[in-house]
Amino acid sequence: MFSTPISSHVGRGEFTDVYDPAEDTFLLMDALERDVNEIKKLCCTDINPLAAACSVESARSNGVNLQPIITDLVTGLLPRLQNQVDVLIFNPPYVVTPSEEVGSHGIEASWAGGERGREVMDRLFPQISALLSSQGLFYLVAVQDNNPEEIIQSLKSSSLKGTVLISRQAGREHLSVLKFWKA
Ligand SMILES: C[S@@+](CC[C@H](N)C(=O)[O-])C[C@H]1O[C@@H](n2cnc3c(N)ncnc32)[C@H](O)[C@@H]1O
Predict the structure, then answer these.
(1) Strand, coil or helix: what is 88?
(2) Residue 1 falls within a domain, yes or no?
(3) Which atom of ligand 1 is nearest to the CA of 111?
(4) Residue 126 is part of which domain span?
(5) CA distance 144 to 94
(6) Tell me, what's the pLDDT at 2?
């Protein structure tokens, strides 16, 4: 078991407007720990510049080197990373909200998922197959409102197979981590 990373700086001070690790974060970490032998090195993107800066501090606090890219989803990574990504991880804004709340670059971007909580993650799905290497894996956090089974079915049209890797009830949220790979 890995020890829980240091994150005492998140959600306070200069990082007040950054998502504080919560049940979804910890479920994702548990899922990744299961597959750790397949995960070697990671970069990250975020739409919230403070979240990117916070990730640098998180990495520094935990002895890891990280260079976040401030961008919308994976904009700018293609075509450079075409078929190059071995592990793609997204803990998206998955909460059902009015569509008007989607599109913030601040703390609201942490949760505002719009209709069915799917408006942000649905924009990423068409890009996954182009990014993943032949042995690449995609991990996605989702809640019941997002209809995980439908996500698994719909990604089949991008030649991706998927499964529910782990699920947990956390308060009112039924959280899952979905795992996809190229068929
Ligand atoms: C649920 S939080 C997860 C934060 C952290 N990765 C974790 O697991 O605790 C969602 C994160 O996605 C970011 N985000 C939301 N919309 C985005 C977009 N269109 N492109 C890139 N990042 C986005 C938010 O700023 C926020 O940091």
Answers:
(1) strand
(2) no
(3) 1
(4) 13-182
(5) 10
(6) 77
In the numeric block, which tokens belong to residue 15?
């990082």
Number of domains, the chain: 1
Tokens 């998955």 label which residue?
94
Q: Is residue 2 part of a domain?
A: no
- Where residue 83 falls (left for φ over 0; alpha for ψ -120 to 50; beta otherwise) is left
Is 7 inside a domain boundary?
no
The Å distance, Cα 89 to ligand 1 centre, comes to 11
Percent of the chain with pLDDT over 90: 87
> CB–CB of 180/137 below 8 Å?
yes
Closest residue by CA, ligand 1 atom 7: 25
Pick the closest to residue 75 from 126, 118, 142, 32 (CA basis): 126
CA 112 to chain centre: 14
Residue 65 included in any domain: yes
Q: Give the residues across from 177 on adjacent strands.
A: 141, 166
CA distance 140 to 138: 7
Rounded mean pLDDT for each run of 10 residues along the chain, 183 residues in total? 89 95 95 79 92 95 90 96 96 98 97 98 98 96 98 98 97 97 96
List all residues whose CB is within 6 A of at least one atom of ligand 1: 19, 21, 24-25, 28, 45-48, 51, 72-73, 91-93, 109-110, 120
Q: What is the CATH number of the domain that holds 101?
A: 3.40.50.150
Place of tokens 């019941």: 144
